[in-house]
Amino acid sequence: RQIFLDMLKHRFISLSKVNLMVFDECHHAVKNDPYKLIMQFYLRCPENDRPHILGLSASIISGNCKPGDLPKKLRDLEATLHCRTETARDLAEVSKYATNPDETLFCFDPRPAGFHAGPLKS
């Protein structure tokens, strides 16, 4: 992200020469994130020379986003990236393709009875 932003700032590349921008983890496009700053160049680009944008995020509701805040967060993202969001409506359908790791928890006593740490040998 930062490298592309620097390329735009130093005029090594013009957005009019870009056909598609892919923003991975696009939910980061807030505050002073490079994605948001790249969009300032997008707005200055003539409308018919602007690249298409594909924003991807698997974790838009991770972190501190409460489910009730999601509609506003999506609207803000749409405004920032000049896009529309699409998301799965059927979580059962999504779960067929998602990974579900098996987790096992092992508990142990860090210092078993009779344990004595002696000097390290070289």
Tell me the layout of helices and strands:
Layout: H1 2-9, E1 20-24, H2 34-44, E2 52-56, H3 70-81, H4 91-95
Parallel strand pairs: 1-2
Helix pairs in contact: 1-2
Main features:
two-stranded parallel ribbon, alpha+beta, 122 residues, 4 helices, 2 strands
Describe the structure.
The protein has 122 residues and is an alpha+beta fold. It has four helices and two strands, in the order H-E-H-E-H-H. It has helices at residues 2-9, 34-44, 70-81, 91-95; strands spanning 20-24, 52-56. Helix 1 runs parallel beside helix 2.
- What characteristic shape results from the CA principal axes? elongated
Number of strands: 2
Strand order of the largest sheet: 1-2
Mean pLDDT: 84
- Secondary structure class reads alpha+beta
First-to-last CA distance: 47 Å
Helicity level: 25-40%
- Largest sheet, strands/sense/barrel: 2 strands, parallel
Beta content: 5-15%
Topology as a string of helices (H) and strands (E)? HEHEHH
User: How many distinct helices?
Assistant: 4
